[in-house]
Amino acid sequence: MPLHDDEVPIDAETVWMLLRQQLPEAAELPISAVGAGTDNSMFRVGDDLVARLPRTPGGVRSLRKERERLPQLAPALTLEVPEPVFAGAPSADYPLDWSVYRWIDGAPPSGSSVADQAAFGRDLAGFVAELHAIGLGGATRADGLSWYRGGSLRASAAMVEPSFAGTRELLGSELDVDRLEARWREGRDLPDSDAPHVWLHGDLRPGNLLVRGGRLHAVIDFGALSIGAPDAEHAAIWDYPAAARDAYFGALDLDEPTWLRARAWAIGVAVMGIPYYWGAFPEFVAECRARLEAVLAAE
């Protein structure tokens, strides 16, 4: 089911035609769908490759950004990250840029795949610390590296706050939306972070992490890569069990204002996701709901 009004149809045959035209040495390999996020569809090609195709024209800029920036960042990161191996061009069969990456084996983090949640939290904190420590090399948000999650909560209020009404209408009998909105406002009304701008992954939700051998092994999908204040980077930690969350916050030694702003971002992003994807992407709605439940349970 399409998630967006301007979505481009994509299936395995589309990928095969693109490969036949532009990367013929891969065209005879088996092709299988391996998932789709809100912005891209992914198809495994043989054993070693994965094709990544934006769902909408708006996703092309993120794809190009990955291809340009990931090779620069990867050497400074301990965890594995996607390696671009081919830059696909628009064609008559698919009108957008697309990419091929090396395949990374692993499973999303879950109660069954993660052996030690506290170790997982520390490993994720280690990745964040490494990413945030990489020099910007003169890059700024003005260089196509601006995203709302690297800005201020106040600047995003007009986008976030109408979604509280939609979430209340859909789930108000099951979630304390009033308390969630109060916690959002608590973070929104704090002074903005005065921390230096850093590189941000921007979306460290479970679908963008891979576990191997019980430990965090890779971080994928850098489509939200940006430069900005670090607060929103920590928002996704509410997607993970309390033991992982506590270890993460302890490893990074976050102060209370940063924690409160991160919690507000966690709420704001999830609240927007529920009404927008309701009926079209139930798995993502469930993920957003679970995040909000975790915020409420943590108090």
From TrEMBL:
Residues 31-265 form the Aminoglycoside phosphotransferase domain. One of its GO terms (molecular function) is transferase activity. The keyword Cytoplasm does not apply. The keyword Iron-sulfur does not apply. Keywords: Transferase. It comes from the Bacteria. Gene3D superfamilies: 3.90.1200.10, Phosphorylase Kinase, domain 1. This is Phosphotransferase. The lineage of its organism: Bacteria, Bacillati, Actinomycetota, Actinomycetes, Micrococcales.
